[in-house]
Amino acid sequence: MNCCDIGSGYKKIWNTSSSVIQSISDRAIFVFAHPDDDVFISGMMKKHLVSGLGIRAVWLTSGGYLGGRRRREQELTLATSELGLSSKDYNLLRFPDLGLTAAMNEAASELSEIFREFKPNTIFVTAFEGGHPDHDAANFIVYEARFRARLDCGVFEFPLYNGAGSFLTWRWRINSFPPGGPETIFQPLEDIEINCKYNAMKIYSSQWMYMVPARLTRSKDVLKSRGEPYRPCPAIRDHSIPPHRGKLNYERWFNSFMRIKFTDFARAVGRVRTFC
User: What pLDDT shows up at residue 180?
Assistant: First the structure.
């Protein structure tokens, strides 16, 4: 199984500004840990829908660890409407926020059933980047669910935030991958896709502390000329090895309430993993 293979379900787009061949699939599934993760790839989602291509979206949790679960779900409903997704086009699985590490096996089982039913030829998922344990767990869960569903399809990841930035940014890196790994691909966006992305940022008002930097790092000019970043996942990935050197973002910034270390994550991966 090779995550980077390009199957017959793709349409090719030649981006002359960056000389990169980019691909849009006619049966893509997008997997997120929380409502609001979708903002980082919503332009790509809208591009699929505007092009008349079938997509499915899955949110593994409702968010709301610190309260406000109902509000997060209401925001999700508005965001899916902004994208143009109907209720049959997405699933909200409601696993515990900040609890995906402990629920990897159950989440992989449920997601594998969705994979079998939808039969995607492309999967997009939050990056394995050490930013938030649920984001990393979602990445692992996709690998595991794909294996259980016996799918042979491409998997791509998109960055949210991580702790591999410079001293000048307090180690924060927003909407950009840690150093190393496969080459980053950029999907330039059109006005309709950019407007959808910005409107979604407004909808997720409960998460303004993430939406503000996400908006500031992606101006309209940047989204038009460069676009949203994503990259192919490696065919073989060991999620028990940290995604980058140094202290991970959630261990440094959030552990006062997350109380999850990467060693906890790695042990959970070892208990659940069946793919090699």
Answer: 87
Q: What residues make up the domain containing 62?
A: 10-265
- As a whole number of angstroms, the distance between CA 195 and CA 97 comes to 29
Per-position DSSP letters for 102-152, written without gaps between them: TTHHHHHHHHHHHHHHH--SEEEEE--SSS-HHHHHHHHHHHHHHHHTT--
| Residue 275 belongs to some domain of the structure | no
**Which among 223, 41, 22 has a CA at the least distance from the CA of 127?**
41
Q: Are 162 and 247 in contact (CB under 8 A)?
A: no
Q: For residue 5, is it within any domain? A: no
Residue 29 in any domain: the answer is yes
Q: How many CA atoms lie within 13 A of 115 on its CB side?
A: 27
Write out the E strands in 181-266: 185-187, 228-232
The answer, yes or no, to whether residue 256 has pLDDT greater than 50, is yes
231 confidence band (pLDDT: 50, 70, 90): very high
Q: What is the mean pLDDT of the chain?
A: 87
What is the pLDDT, as a whole number, of residue 15?
35
User: Is 1 within the bounds of a domain?
Assistant: no
C-alpha angle 91-97-103 in degrees, rounded to nearest 5: 80
Q: What is the DSSP letter of 99?
A: -
The pTM for the full model equals: 0.89
CATH, residue 234? 3.40.50.10320
Q: For the chain, what is the domain count?
A: 1
Question: What pLDDT sits at residue 210?
Answer: 78
Name the nearest CA neighbour of 197 among 215, 171, 212.
215
